[in-house]
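Researcher: Please generate the 3D structure of the following complex. Treat every line as part of one assembly.
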Amino acid sequence: MIGYIARRVLVAVPTILVIITVAFFMMRAAPGGPFDLERPMPAEIRERVMTAYGLNRPVHEQYLSYIGDLARGDLGPSLRFRDKTVADIIAEGFPVSATVGGLSILLALMLGTLLGSIAALRQNRPSDYGVMGLAMVGITIPPFVMGPILAMVFGLGLGLLPTGGLDPRFGMTPERLVLPVITLALPQIAIISRLMRASMIEVIRSNYIRTARAKGLSESAVIFRHALRAAILPLVSYLGPASAALVTGSIVIERVFQLPGIGRNFVDAALARDYTVVMGVVILYAGLIILLNLIADLLYAALNPKVKYD
Amino acid sequence: MSLLSTPGEKAEMLESAAVQGRSLWDDARARLLRNKAAVTGMIVLGLLVLLAVIGPEIWPHDYSTIYRDRVWTSPTFENWHWFGTDAQGRDLVARTLVGLRISLMVGVVATLVSLLIGITWGATAGFIGGRVDQVMMRIVDILYSLPFIFFVIILMVVFGRNIVLIFVAIGAVEWLTMARIVRGQTISLRKMEFVEAAEAAGVTRLNIIRRHIVPNVLGPVVVYVTLTIPVVILAESFLSFLGLGVQEPLTSLGRLISHGAQDMEVARWTLIVPAATMMLTLVCFNFIGDGLRDAIDPKDR
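Model: Done. Output below.
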């Protein structure tokens, strides 16, 4: 097990290095630079600023020095916000993004498992069709449509929940999290309940479930003790892709609800050629997704006695 | 001595063979046509495609014509603004039709790109096997775990909004699952008894691939393609929402929806019309995809 983890981490290092390299050179290939503002600064000052950030050196030198800094854990200064380092920006935004993302995946797992199991156990009956119909709606409505609609209905219409963001001045009060978490979770609830339904249907037709019923176990014991454990396995392997989907979703959600997370800044940073921030966010999310995939794989092995990692 | 002694018996045999001769594909088609949701999906999608292809040509308004005095007209039969106009007074029917056309095009072309890469990669890995297979699939595993969307965003930011780039960028993201499916199918098929039997019977390699491998790989691939198109359309709408999709005045459903979401409080129809169109399109694809899957691989019905 430990050997397996060590090997996965060893593979992750070159992977991240490749990501860094590709992202670095792609950003540098972009026309324009961080100091090509709408109101151009005098050439002399621009020159001095570029030199101060080392942007005048040849690209490969910049690359090597970036990797060097990175090895020491230094993500560099933001090029857009003069008084902030990339680490500051991540430290400010990440707790917000992580809270919203973590709560969403929890909600999606709980509701998705529940709805999917209900649909499977009532296959081809009204409640099955109901759940699958809702899942279809959840999959086909993009979050950036669902977000404003929910905000309009629950925020402006019913006045139940605040629509604004997690403004640091007001703090992260729970009711400010409700709408973003639900919006981010909805597509995942839909996907997970479909997965759950399919795998549950397969499981309850298997021989050991028939045996469990034949030996007179109660229906709840059959489902909870025998079927659910096996049926939940495909969900575990979906956790990796789900985390990637949440990252994508968070970019949208943080814009729609004006959350001060990391995703919101990414596009702006890329457009403003804030190289260091773009790199920092890419590295953070790549590392996170690799980590979550590893955890999902380990969890899968822990739950499934047929799989052994060594 | 032949078993078929008289010409009459032979004819009878042939006739009954013709009656019984239903391939798996015939069965699948019959199952598909019995599926009401899938049939409805196909009919509605057919209409939508027809609208997207000829609609913009015959509709009285052009999608880029700006009527300065008709900003945010609510839906009316006057002046043919059936679905109203947008923030610049452009006719929403015309824009939705063009948006639908672009979205469908992005969906189909990007999926084809992913299909091309995925089949080539997966089939190569599956056929060659061994170490090559291991390395190739390891690469897919690694790519699977990347935040690809960041690269797509950087790509779009770097090289500007270019529709060809959208095709390639999204297609390049979606090919991974395709490669896995094709490889899995190829490997399991190569070990199948009927392939062995065909080999033993002296069928040529080309014919084995053509008559036995391809039809069996095709099923899951077709299902996956139908289910990928809506995912691609959603991916494009995601880029559009970030302002990185197709360039104005050209539009896509995603772009129209993201404008609609902004103007929702003053002009609800600018959100409802394109959002409903997109939902309808995606639901159709999903119904067809689910129907195809149940028809080709009817194990969990």
